[in-house]
């Protein structure tokens, strides 16, 4: 019985993944330049800073795009030297946005993005199977927004954020040869964003934006246990015919601060830089409330309420990108950025493998009158980690590799 309770407590790992995994893939043009934000050329600026809509040259702008994201994580036990690699499917983040200026100093818009989401799949019989075998996460942000031009050189914008999410997690319960699936398809929450966009000189754009934290509320989560013997279910207060229990939880998504600038060195050449600050300290702990199952050995007063310490820390990202107009129709782009992990080696967990990562990016843009086509790619260089999580008994070395590619389309009719 104790073995079940201890392993089930690791559920908190999947919920931190749902809240904390930030995917920087919200614009193909932006990715090619290290995912920098101060680019008010079309509606793709809407997600990064709604105030940027006021400086889009076209009165109506429509954009859409998608990415392929491939990553592999390798864990090696330094005592046995056994090595395990994930077999993750290709991730496919999407985005779309529209911006319209009905009157001279007012712009309205809408942005759809998938800023949190991935799938990690370890072998079903690997040494960490009681922590995770497969974890699938999907999230969707819907953002209506407005921007007002306060002066010819500055605008203010704000957005409302409605978020929907899904999580599906499989793990082993080896003590009784069982399995556990955790699923919630209707988690939701809301937040807001706002920012200022400055163009004090035709050569210089400055973007300052804030995106609020969001508390994703899971109200109808289902935990499904499967054991070869029906006698195990009563130990958890479950009906053997279903093996199911319900849970509720609040899953925090972090806030984000961004300062970006773009400077036109020459009429054909521009340079962009961004600084991002992420409020990961919201992950100090996570609380789950189960309907029946006494999964919380650390809470004798109410063993159906599980509290897990996470010990995340705030992190920073530094980005630098550039674009050069090869011709009036063809644009070349390059970039690089450094992204800090939000936790130390002592808090590493295989459900949310995270690394201090260098990323190099590049791409091409093609402008055909009102239409635009953008291509981008990125190669990530995560730094290896010495895993030392004493709470989980998880020790060894973790490595990763990843690459991204994307196709974006834009239409600016008038």
TrEMBL record:
UniProt keyword Lipid metabolism, yes or no: no
Keyword Glycoprotein: no
Lineage: Bacteria, Pseudomonadati, Bacteroidota, Flavobacteriia, Flavobacteriales
Coiled coil start-end: none
Assigned protein family: Belongs to the OmpP1/FadL family.
Keywords: Cell outer membrane, Membrane, Signal, Transmembrane, Transmembrane beta strand
Topology in the lipid bilayer: Multi-pass membrane protein
The protein, known as: Long-chain fatty acid transport protein
